[in-house]
Design a protein that fits this description.
Blueprint (H helix, E strand, L loop, with lengths): L12 H4 L3 E6 L12 E2 L6 E2 L7 E2 L1 E5 L5 E2 L1 H11 L2 E3 L3
Parallel strand pairs: 1-7, 3-4
Antiparallel strand pairs: 1-5, 2-3, 5-6
């Protein structure tokens, strides 16, 4: 599929192009422990800490953990977005 026609692309290059990411386990933000999930920046796959068939528990995330990327979207867009993968922090 041509990336330009991919429904998952919605200007993420403005904040995800060339950023450092790492594989990590999803947990609520330290400053908001009641936060219960996040979504993949591309396909909206849910990330949660509980075991659920509807959610992932791990994925790629930015250093500040504000943006999450599922494995499928990582594989589909890693070349286009030129992510720098680091070891888990």
């Amino acid at each position: 599929m041509d990336d330009l026609n991919d429904w998952r692309l919605r200007d993420q290059d403005k904040y995800l192009l060339g950023v450092s990411i790492y594989w990590g386990k999803w947990t609520p933000p330290e400053d908001n422990p009641s936060w219960d999930h996040d979504h993949c920046e591309f396909c909206w796959q849910k990330f949660m800490s509980i075991d659920s068939s509807e959610a992932q528990q791990e994925g790629y995330t930015t250093d500040n953990r504000s943006h999450w990327i599922c494995l499928i979207c990582y594989e589909d867009f890693k070349d286009r977005f030129q992510w720098k993968v680091k070891k888990e922090e």
